[in-house]
Write a structure and sequence with these properties.
Belongs to the LysR transcriptional regulatory family. With 298 residues, the protein is α/β, with parallel strands linked by helices. The protein has twelve helices and eleven strands.
Length: 298
């Protein structure tokens, strides 16, 4: 089976044909004549065809050489077109950024990031999807997002990660709830037994709470499950039950007295906020730009 010729060697053959000699082609390329001669000879051996007739007057194409140069011209034109097309794809990729963000991060961090990113890279087109942490990891892992931001205490080994902040979960109840006026901190057992208002399975908030309880051999007893921080806050204010959410999500309600924070010192409800991207993929430049913005604003 004939081996595939090197495209650069085919290009060199065409240059020798245009210059009329190996020496002139070598001078145009800034190479030595023996080096060019060796490359042409290697191409002839590879193809099994004599391409040049060499004489003291110069080098001219053999009939077979003229056919090969014609074919090579078409092949090189196609290769150039391929390179231009790939460059266009790369430019389009580099001009866009797909971001998947978990809900708490989307509500309390991402808006400032996107505003700052727009100042740094005004031509970058950013699309952001908001979902829970498990779905964020899925989208990044499956190539549906270039970078993700999640709130889970664990991160898959298939993903690269960078922690950019810490976040605390808070147990909160309305002012009239029995837990609101406790003199003693709440025991973790009582929290586990209560019908809590919690995020849906797959949420980083839910996973953090379940892990914290599991470390004390306790199991979560969900009341209402909702995929919305705002809906959970409203349900808690209405008296539907205690809620466990990020301190950022509850800050306004706690400050206004609509909800009261309930200390549960037995539980470690601190969690990392983490950026993730695929280990086996080339990240577009927008990922680096966004990470730099996140590092400044965290």
């Amino acid at each position: 089976m004939t081996s595939r010729p090197d495209l650069d060697d085919l290009d060199l053959l065409g240059l020798v044909a245009r210059c009329g000699s190996i020496g002139q082609a070598a001078a145009e390329l800034g190479l030595s004549q023996p080096a060019v001669s060796r490359r042409v000879a290697a191409l002839e051996r590879s193809l099994g065809v004599v391409l040049l007739h060499r004489s003291r007057q110069g080098s001219v194409l053999t009939p077979a050489g003229r056919v090969v140069v014609d074919w090579a011209t078409s092949l090189l034109d196609a290769a150039d077109g391929f390179s231009r097309s790939v460059a266009t794809l790369r430019d389009e990729r580099d001009a866009s950024l797909r971001v998947a963000v978990s809900m708490t991060i989307a509500e309390h961090h991402a808006p400032a990031w996107l505003a700052s990113l727009a100042e740094v890279t005004p031509r970058l087109r950013v699309s952001m999807s908001v979902t829970n942490s498990t779905e964020v990891a899925d989208r990044v892992e499956q190539g549906g997002a270039d970078i993700g931001f999640l709130e889970s205490p664990t991160v898959r080994s298939s993903l690269r990660r960078r922690r950019f902040a810490w976040d605390d979960l808070v147990v909160a109840v309305p002012p009239g709830h029995p837990w609101a006026d406790r003199d003693e901190p709440l025991a973790a057992r009582l929290l586990a037994e209560a019908a809590l208002l919690v995020r849906e399975p797959g949420s980083g908030t839910r996973e953090t709470l379940e892990h914290a309880l599991a470390r004390m051999s306790l199991t979560l007893t969900p009341g209402f499950e909702m995929a919305s921080n705002a809906a959970l806050r409203s349900a808690a204010i209405a008296g539907a039950g205690p809620v466990v959410l990020s301190a950022s999500a509850l800050a306004d309600d706690l400050a206004a007295g609509r909800l009261v924070a309930v200390p549960v010192p037995d539980l470690d409800l601190r969690r990392p906020l983490t950026a993730v991207w695929r280990r086996d993929a080339v990240a577009p430049p927008g990922v680096r730009s966004l990470l730099e913005v996140v590092g400044r604003l965290r």
